[in-house]
Each structure stands twice: as structure tokens, then as C-alpha cells.
């Protein structure tokens, strides 16, 4: 009887010992509270989360805003392809332009142990809490093309020179209307820009208006609708239908009497497509100069057909390659290449950035830029 009792007691002791050993590693991996005795670095992050450590983890999280715009599909696909070719695992997610969905996706990337996050935000002001989670884990964050605002967690920013994008659009209008030599001539212009939650709008619109505002002030450019401030000309989610609806109203209110519309500054191709659709349905004058950005297939076709004048070409292959280089440097414990340390203040700090240079495409050079380079095939543009 004593032997049986001792055997039971020894079994209980062994189970208790095993349970105690397992309990010591439950911490953050299972979503539990971090033990109070856990050793921290000076920045308050777990030593084991240092992205420079060689622990065999090669998981990179890539958060894209939506599949609704062609460019984000290209960005995501190009980046995943290049990261995997470089030996990394990729968790690529699209959020259907739903902020809560993007937050949840990033939370899952953090929980799954991503070492680096590449985030193209839907709304740059809406990721603060989940960015804090990334910072607590020691995860480096690269803001991709859209700056994440008011967060100390943003390590780097990779984009095209967004001010130059707007400036090139403004200069294109300036050149095609020969505004420098306009004399007493007056030209009518309207404005369409993008989502007010996208920090890039400030640079796109600001760059263009730095070129065009002096002509508005001088009366050389006239805006019959009177809608010239950034907030009024914004388009939520860069949505084509919203841009079209607003522009149909502008046309009906200001151009139905035969008034000539000479130029439209549209900040990107999805809004330019809305303008082109509105013009096709309710405008009988000569087609205006119409700008765009991204060289989406529909807009390049419109360019060929004379319904859009130009589009800023931002070769997503170039940007994806640069981000892969940045990720690779971070994963190996180094510092990625940057070329701007002054421009992009996210409200918390100036974010070290790498800016790629944009170029414009129009009917005269699109074949060289888009077809000869392999970005599109000729069949895709028919």
C-alpha cells in the first residue's frame, strides 16, 4: 500500500515539474502577458526580437491597401516575387480598402513572427496602435509609398519623389498650354486629387500648385467651378466613380453652355478615369489636357485614344527592388540605403527615406517606357 501511495505521489510531482517548465515559455508567443522579469533592451523591446539576429526566421509581412487599383496588384506581386527570389518567406495581404481589415492583417503578421513589415497604408493616421505593437516586438517597419503618420514605429519610407510627381504634372500643363507665353489669353482648368487620408496628396497637389498657382493668381488660369483648395477637390479612396460623379456636376454647372475646358489636373489614373468618363458622357467641346499617375492600362489606352494626355510612370519594379534591398539589409543587421533625411516628417519624426524618380509617359514615348521595357505587352494595350 505504501509503495502504491509513493508511486502516485512521484507521478504527481513529475507532472507538476513538467507543467512548471512549460509555463515559463508561454509569454508573448501565445498572446499572454509578458513576464515582469523578462529582460528588455534599452528601447523596451525583447532582446530576442532584434531583426539583426540570425535565428533562421525569414518571414516578411507585406500589407497592401486594396486589389481594386491595378498598381497595388503590381506592387504586391513584384515585391513578393523578388523577396522570395532573395530567399525570404512572404505574407502578402490586401485589405479591400478597409482600415480595420488592414489593422487585423498586420496584427496577424506580428503574431506570426514577421521580422520586417512593409506597409502601404489605407489611412496613414489609423495604424498607431498596431504600429506600437510592432515597435514593442522590435519589428522594423518600412512605410511603402504612403507615409504612416504620427508613429515612432516607422523605421524607413520607400516611395517615389511625390513632390516631383505633382510638379511634373503641373509642368506638363504649363508646357502644353504654353502658359509662359500666354499674354492676355486665359485658360479654364479644374482640379481632382485623391484621398484626404493619404499623405501623398499633400505632395502631389503641392508640387502641381507650386507650378500652377502663379498662373491662377495672374488670371491666366481660371477655375470656373471655384474649386481649387485641396480638401474640396479630394476624392475619397481615389475612387473612380466618386471622381466621375463630382466631375459630372462640375461640367453640368459650368460647361453646359459651351464653355471650353482646357485642362484638368488629376492626381492619378483612377481619378483621371473618372474625369474621362464624365467628359465622354456630358461634354461636347475639345478634350482638355488631362494628367494622371501610375500608367494603369485603362489610362494608357485612353492616352492612345486621345482621352488622357499623360500619366506619371512610377515603375513598381524599381520600387519593389529597392524595398527588397532595404529588407535584406535590415534582416542582415545592417542599415538600408537612403537618399532623403529631410522631407518626410510623419508628425513624430523625420523618417529616413529612399525616393525613386518618376517620369511622365504620353502618346509620344509610352512605347519606349512601357512596352519596350517589358512593363506591358502591346496586346495588353490594344
Overall description:
The structure is a single chain. The strands form 3 sheets. Strands 2-1-3-4-5-11 form a 6-stranded parallel beta sheet, sandwiched between helices. It has a 4-stranded parallel beta sheet with strand order 7-6-8-9, with helices on both faces. A two-stranded antiparallel ribbon has the order 10-12. The model is unreliable at 1-53 (pLDDT under 50). With 382 residues, it is α/β, with parallel strands linked by helices. Strand 3, helix 4 and strand 4 (140-144) form a beta-alpha-beta unit. The protein is built from 11 helices and 12 strands. The chain has helices at 2-23, 70-85, 99-111, 128-136, 162-176, 200-218, 240-254, 269-282, 297-304, 316-331, 366-371; strands at 59-64, 89-94, 116-119, 140-144, 154-160, 187-192, 221-222, 263-266, 289-290, 310-313, 353-356, 359-362. Helix 2 packs across helix 10 (316-331) and helix 5 (162-176) runs parallel beside helix 6 (200-218). The chain is elongated, with a radius of gyration of 26 Å.
Average predicted local confidence, pLDDT: 88
Q: Evaluate the radius of gyration.
A: 26 Å
Number of strands: 12
Proportion of residues in β-strands? 5-15%
Instruction: Give the C-level CATH assignment of the largest domain.
Output: Alpha Beta
Main sheet summary? 6 strands, parallel
CATH superfamily of the largest domain: Response regulator
Oligomer state of the chains in this structure = single chain
Amino acid at each position: 500500500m505504501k509503495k502504491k501511495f509513493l508511486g502516485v505521489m512521484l507521478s504527481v510531482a513529475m507532472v507538476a515539474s513538467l507543467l512548471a517548465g512549460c509555463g515559463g515559455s508561454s509569454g508573448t508567443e501565445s498572446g499572454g502577458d509578458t513576464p515582469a522579469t523578462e529582460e528588455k533592451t534599452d528601447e523596451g523591446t525583447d532582446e530576442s526580437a532584434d531583426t539583426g539576429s540570425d535565428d533562421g526566421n525569414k518571414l516578411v509581412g507585406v500589407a497592401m491597401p486594396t486589389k481594386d487599383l491595378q498598381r497595388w496588384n503590381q506592387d504586391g506581386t513584384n515585391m513578393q516575387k523578388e523577396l522570395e527570389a532573395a530567399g525570404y518567406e512572404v505574407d502578402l495581404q490586401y485589405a479591400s480598402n478597409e482600415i480595420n481589415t488592414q489593422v487585423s492583417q498586420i496584427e496577424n503578421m506580428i503574431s506570426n513572427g514577421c521580422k520586417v513589415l512593409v506597409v502601404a497604408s489605407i489611412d496613414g493616421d489609423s495604424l498607431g496602435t498596431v504600429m506600437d505593437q510592432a515597435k514593442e516586438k522590435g519589428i522594423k517597419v518600412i512605410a511603402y509609398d504612403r507615409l504612416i503618420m504620427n508613429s515612432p514605429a516607422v523605421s524607413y519610407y520607400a516611395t517615389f519623389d511625390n513632390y516631383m510627381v505633382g510638379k511634373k504634372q503641373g509642368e506638363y500643363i504649363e508646357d502644353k498650354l504654353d502658359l509662359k507665353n500666354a499674354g492676355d489669353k486665359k485658360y479654364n482648368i479644374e482640379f481632382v486629387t485623391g484621398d484626404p487620408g493619404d499623405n501623398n496628396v499633400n505632395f502631389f497637389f503641392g508640387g502641381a500648385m507650386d507650378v500652377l498657382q502663379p498662373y491662377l493668381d495672374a488670371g491666366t488660369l481660371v477655375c470656373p467651378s471655384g474649386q481649387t483648395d485641396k480638401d474640396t477637390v479630394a476624392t475619397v479612396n481615389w475612387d473612380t466613380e466618386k471622381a466621375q460623379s463630382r466631375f459630372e456636376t462640375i461640367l453640368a454647372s459650368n460647361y453646359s453652355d459651351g464653355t471650353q475646358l482646357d485642362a484638368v489636373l488629376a492626381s492619378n489614373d483612377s481619378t483621371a478615369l473618372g474625369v474621362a468618363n464624365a467628359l465622354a458622357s456630358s461634354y461636347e467641346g475639345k478634350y482638355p489636357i488631362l494628367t494622371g499617375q501610375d500608367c494603369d492600362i485603362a489610362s494608357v489606352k485612353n492616352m492612345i485614344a486621345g482621352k488622357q494626355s499623360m500619366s506619371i510612370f512610377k515603375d513598381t519594379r524599381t520600387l519593389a527592388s529597392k524595398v527588397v534591398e532595404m529588407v535584406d539589409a535590415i534582416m542582415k543587421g545592417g542599415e538600408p540605403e537612403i537618399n532623403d533625411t529631410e522631407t518626410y516628417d510623419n508628425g513624430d519624426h523625420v523618417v529616413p527615406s529612399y525616393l525613386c524618380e518618376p517620369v511622365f509617359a504620353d502618346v509620344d514615348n509610352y512605347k519606349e517606357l512601357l512596352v519596350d521595357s517589358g512593363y506591358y505587352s502591346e496586346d495588353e494595350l490594344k
